[in-house]
Amino acid sequence: MRNTMTSERAAHWRDTYTQRGDAEVSWFSIEPTCSIALIDAGGADPGRPAVDVGAGASRLADVLLERGFVDVTVLDVSDDGLAHTRERLGADASRLRCVVSDVLDWVPDHRFGLWHDRAVFHFLTDAADRQRYRDLLDSALTPDALVVVGTFAADGPESCSGLPTARYSPEALAAELGAGPGSGLRVVAQRREEHRTPWGAVQPFTWLALRRE
Question: Measured in Å, how far apart are the chain's first and last C-alpha atoms?
Answer without folding.
Answer: 35
